[in-house]
Amino acid sequence: VQLQASGGGLVQAGDSLRLSCAASGSAFTAYAVGWFRQAPGKEREFVASANWSGGSTLYADAVKGRFTLSRDNTKNTVYLEMSRLQPDDTAVYYCAAALHSAIVIDATDVDYWGKGTLVTVSS
Question: Are 120 and 11 in contact (CB under 8 A)?
Fold first, then answer.
């Protein structure tokens, strides 16, 4: 499966932004999906993940209550709705897909990565 993330940009603290990740290829519902991010000088970290249906989700503590992951399997697309953005959310955001995990929180379990999309939050 190929993943293409989009929707990043420059926003102010407190703003909202929606990222999208379009998947091509077959059997999209066979994959758990997730979002990771990497800030300058830091390691890539888990943000959010959902199982094959989107009925089960998991979030990093830093984004819980502010970010919402959803997936539309009819469109082969994953979304990350981000609200109350903070400067600490500044990072390159990557969408990910994992075939052998019910939900993906560890980067080593990811089978496919999308190219990142940059989110910059100014104070």
Answer: yes
Digit-coded pLDDT (tens) for 77-96: 999 999 999 999 999 999 99
How many CB atoms are closer than 10 A to CB 41? 5
Structure tokens at 111: 């089978």
State which residues of the chain have pLDDT below 70.
none
Per DSSP, the residues of the chain read -EEEEE--EEEETT--EEEEEEEESS-GGGSEEEEEEE-TTS--EEEEEE-SSSSSEEE-TTTTTTEEEEEETTTTEEEEEE-S--GGG-EEEEEEEESS-SS--SGGG-SEEPBPEEEEEE-
